[in-house]
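Query structure, 374 tokens:
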């Protein structure tokens, strides 16, 4: 939150700006002093410096300078302004609670407060909410849509509606298709909870094996692949999951996960499951191999740390200690989301980046935070 010529202005942001370093350098040269490494602060500085006549015009002028993925919500004592980038990388939903409008990244957030879902903000749309009601305007269009397909794979909750499709439906389809593509004679199907639960249910239903809760997740531990350091990730895995021995002992198992990034978390889980007595552990991944970094808001590591970038499926299988390993194909992932192929960003799978990424954009958010003076 800042105090500027329009008064108090608070912001929230989901996404990542490809030209953040360039904008920060330019603003610092012009006298701006930054307190954080967050992209959100860059936008607040741009707004504060704008000479446009209204807050809406100041925001529109500021976001027109941004390159990358963003959804912003701005709040003043008398207005709520929300804006989604023209490529539509991230979802942004509009709801209503009594006479008040609500915006959220996922529709499940609206459910929690009993708000009615109205619609998704369109790519490149900005809405303003005041006591007089809601009005909408459009930013300059992007050359294409680039909705993040990884929202359906991992990031969003299964009880949300994302890009017009139910996440639960998409993940179940992925699981069923994975069972058709990569059949496996096993006695039990288990998921790596929680994001793979619905894909595992789809897999089990299609292959006819019994779905069981074979791993119990400690919900007080966050997502381990996002943890910035390997030592921290390994420690988190040890306290995040516990195997159910009665389910696993002397059984052949298919373990379904949504994706493999570095592979270290899954390797530790396979070891846990085998130590609990599983006779065989066959791994099925409900997305294609993640081979390329994401620069648009999901902190996937640089390419050197992505195991699929430099190892074959067989090599990954051996590293994991699995009896077999198979992935969903990209074409079947596209079928699952049920929208035209050109609507999505799939750069982490196929290296087709919808926005060119400058060579100097190498540092992750965590590396920037570590470099910040204490």
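Result returned for the query:
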């Amino acid at each position: 939150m800042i105090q500027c010529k329009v008064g108090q202005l608070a912001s929230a942001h989901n996404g990542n700006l490809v030209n953040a370093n360039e904008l920060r350098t330019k603003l610092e040269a012009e006298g701006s002093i930054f307190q954080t490494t967050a992209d959100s602060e860059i936008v607040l500085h741009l707004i504060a410096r704008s000479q446009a006549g209204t807050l809406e015009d100041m925001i529109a002028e500021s976001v027109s300078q941004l390159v990358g993925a963003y959804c912003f919500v701005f709040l003043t004592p008398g207005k709520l302004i929300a804006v989604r980038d023209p490529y539509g990388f991230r979802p942004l939903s509009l709801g209503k609670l009594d006479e008040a409008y609500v915006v959220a990244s996922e529709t499940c957030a609206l459910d929690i407060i009993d708000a009615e879902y109205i619609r998704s903000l369109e790519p490149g749309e900005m809405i303003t909410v005041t006591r007089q009601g809601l009005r909408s305007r459009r930013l300059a269009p992007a050359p294409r849509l680039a909705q993040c397909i990884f929202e359906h794979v991992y990031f969003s909750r299964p009880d949300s509606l994302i890009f017009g499709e139910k996440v639960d439906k998409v993940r179940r389809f992925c699981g069923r298709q994975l069972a058709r593509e990569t059949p496996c004679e096993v006695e039990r199907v288990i998921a790596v909870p929680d994001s793979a639960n619905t894909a595992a249910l789809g897999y089990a239903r299609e292959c006819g094996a019994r779905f069981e809760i074979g791993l119990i997740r400690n919900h007080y531990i966050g997502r381990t692949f996002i943890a910035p350091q390997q030592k921290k990730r390994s420690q988190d895995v040890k306290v995040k999951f516990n195997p159910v021995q009665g389910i696993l002992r002397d059984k052949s198992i298919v373990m379904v996960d949504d994706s493999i990034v570095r592979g270290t978390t899954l390797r530790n889980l396979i070891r846990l499951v085998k130590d609990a007595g599983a006779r065989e552990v066959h791994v099925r991944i409900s997305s294609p191999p993640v081979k390329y970094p994401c620069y648009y808001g999901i902190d996937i590591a640089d390419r050197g740390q992505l195991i699929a970038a430099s190892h074959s499926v067989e090599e990954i299988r051996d590293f994991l200690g699995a009896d077999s390993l198979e992935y969903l194909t990209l074409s079947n992932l596209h079928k699952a989301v049920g929208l035209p192929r050109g609507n999505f960003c799939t750069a982490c799978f196929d290296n087709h980046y919808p926005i060119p990424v400058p060579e100097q954009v190498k540092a992750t958010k965590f590396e920037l935070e570590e470099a910040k003076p204490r």
